[in-house]
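User: Predict structure, ligand cytidine-5'-monophosphate.
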Amino acid sequence: MLAPVLTIDGPSGAGKGTVSRLVAKKLGWHYLDSGSIYRSVAIAVQNASIDLANISDIVKVTQAMVLEFECGDSLIVKLNGKDITNQLGLESTGNIASQVAAIPEVRAVLLQKQQDFRQLPGLVADGRDMGTVVFPDAGYKVFLTASAEKRAERRYKQLIEKEIDANLAEIKSEIETRDRRDMERETAPLAMASGSLYIDSSEMTIDSVIEEVLNLIR
Ligand code: C5P
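Assistant: Predicted complex:
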């Protein structure tokens, strides 16, 4: 039996990560944070000092990359045996991730790696193209968004809480640049899959978003 899938797509900072993790926990389903896979490629590219214009070498490190996800109280990600959890969340990692994510060959290499997460009793998959490309046959699809202002504010708070230096105006402008790149790329652009439940979380609490998502499944 093919495991059921709930896809949660949307731009960065809409609350997808928090909502997906908590919904997966409530349902007892597995969780795929596809953004962390693209972020891992970004780190692998940086570690190997590859120029972002050198597509063939970027594809090679993507193919060679060994990723391990250890899901305990918090997620630990290892790239080729080395813990990269702390580097994953950096803005610089997200920016490089969105550049390598625009390369069709990189997306092709990562497709199967992501589909392998589909296991019983079910999967919550969080990303940009989960409902459109990776799991087009998912039984439940959500498009979760929020205004750029709100998303920048949330991101700013998260960084300050982690004691990472941050500037709100810079974050907003980076979010807008990343949105544009993710929506305008040729391959698997950020788009709402047909049949998705559309949720704008700008004025909602996390709990009420989770409630709406769970109602879809009940
Ligand atoms: O969601 P997160 O901010 O971690 O994603 C980092 C980048 O990875 C995004 O800006 C996007 O370019 C890319 N990404 C993607 N497809 C996904 C998930 C993330 O292209 N399914």
